[in-house]
Design a protein that fits this description.
94 residues, three-stranded antiparallel beta sheet
Amino acid sequence: MFSGADRGRGYGREAVALLCDRLFEREGAGRVALTTDLENAPMRAVAERCGFRFEGVLRSFMPSRRGRRDYAMYAITKDDWTDRRAADGANETN
């Protein structure tokens, strides 16, 4: 868990991007899925900034101290990831 001082610095987005690079480029993944608590707005924003698409809600998916929680499901395909990384590279040179 990040401390409040570390939030908003892009560490989560960088971690997700590095993991996706590894899974798609070295491990041969064709698709990567990500789930997070439905109320976790910061993680949902990270997923969307990284190009993941919202696919739906997994109802009562995860047990917690507060009872079972609904989770948001996101995913991205290798083709989408490759296109996004190419666009990011083009934007960095402009």
